[in-house]
Every structure is written in structure tokens, then in C-alpha cells.
Automatic annotation (TrEMBL):
The keyword Transcription regulation does not apply. InterPro entries: UPF0145_dom_sf, UPF0145_YbjQ-like. This is UPF0145 protein DEW08_24650. The keyword Transferase does not apply. Keywords: Plasmid. Belongs to the UPF0145 family.
């Protein structure tokens, strides 16, 4: 499955547009990860717990996008957009959403 942010794929022709597909992942942020990230912010460095959670959420969202495109018989998803949001009353949830257009290629 080809997944791209562009609206075309070099050397390939879109023969059929199958519709919009999306994938979402919402993850809760662990209180211990928050505590250690706060300490890390004070002393400097990267917040590895948050980076890992963000990577996991992005991978899950792309897996859902790919599954939705495969269910339509797509060869590719073009025009992919990736969005990140913090949800919850006290920003306790991380949401990653991806969407694009499922297509068949010639």
C-alpha cells in the first residue's frame, strides 16, 4: 500500500477514486509518564515517554487508515493529512487522526 501526502504518485496514474478513508487513535497519557516528563522538562532533554506515546498513536492511526483503504480495494492513499490534538479536561488524552483519498492505480 502506497501512502503519500501528495495528490499523485510519480509514474502511476490514478484510475479510480474510491473515497475518503481515515484512521484515529486516542491514547491516555500515563500519570507517571507525566511526572517524569515534568522532571525532564526541568533538567532538560527529550521526553521519551511522550515521544513513544505519540509514535504508538501515529502508527495505530496509519494502521486503521491502511485497513480502511484495503477494505475498499485500494492500491494507495493520496493526499494524506496527519493531525495531532490534545483532548480531555486536563489534557489527559492524545489523539492522532489521519485521512486521505483511497485510489486504484494504473
Amino acid at each position: 500500500m502506497i501512502i503519500t501526502t501528495t495528490d499523485s504518485i510519480e509514474g502511476r496514474r490514478v484510475t479510480q477514486y474510491l473515497g475518503m478513508v481515515a484512521g484515529e487513535a486516542i491514547l491516555g497519557v500515563n500519570v507517571f509518564r507525566d511526572m517524569f516528563s515534568s522532571i525532564r522538562d526541568i533538567v532538560g532533554g527529550r521526553a521519551g515517554g511522550y515521544q513513544s506515546a505519540l509514535r504508538d498513536a501515529r502508527e495505530a492511526a496509519f494502521a486503521d487508515l491502511t485497513a480502511a483503504a484495503q477494505a475498499l480495494g485500494a492500491d494507495a492513499v493520496i493526499g494524506v493529512d496527519v493531525d495531532y490534538e490534545v483532548l480531555g479536561k486536563e489534557n489527559g488524552m492524545l489523539m492522532v487522526s489521519v485521512n486521505g483519498t483511497a485510489v486504484r492505480l494504473g
